[in-house]
Amino acid sequence: MKLSSICVYCGSSAGTDPEIINQARLLGATLAKKDMTLVYGAAKIGVMGAVAQGALDANGKVIGVIPAFLQIKEVVHTGLTELIVNETMHERKMKLQELSDGFITLPGGFGTMEELFEVLTWSQLALHKKPVGMLNVNGFYDDLLSALKNMVDKGFLKQENYDILLVDTTIDGLLDQMENFEPMAMPKWLKASLSDNE
Length: 198
Hints:
There is one protein chain. 44% of the residues lie in helices and 16% in strands. It is built from eight helices and seven strands, in the order βαβαββαβαβααβαα. Helix 1 links the parallel strand 1 (5-9) and strand 2.
């Protein structure tokens, strides 16, 4: 699968583990070197700022998308290749999805989780066929992955849906998985539902 643009979901905080910031910068630089456009939430602070600066320092193309109410001088990155301002968080997420061939989640908080699970749900419902990746830096997401496995064990999440999420501890390994991603077929129940409505 040819990936020309990657959306990165991540925190606007820097966190307490410096390796997360290092990996964010390295991810941005790696995308630039691979001629992949970085699409992200337009902030200059925290993990978001690090991934953007990593790409920009490597002469990469970076597109930021931000709702107007967050566009304050202390937050928004003013040195991006392109800045798109819209009205709502929902419009922002839709634009991020439209502009991207795939998604990578770095460490973050509630907002990052919401973006990740929304795009996973869209994939599960066959609303897109793009790879969804997670860079598990220093075991940051180990507990979340255990919770997801518990959902499978308890019958709330199908194994094939769990497998939609591509996980790696290295950037190159994750990008390799994403480039070799095979989209899941549309679920039979969804096909039947769509046929009934035609």
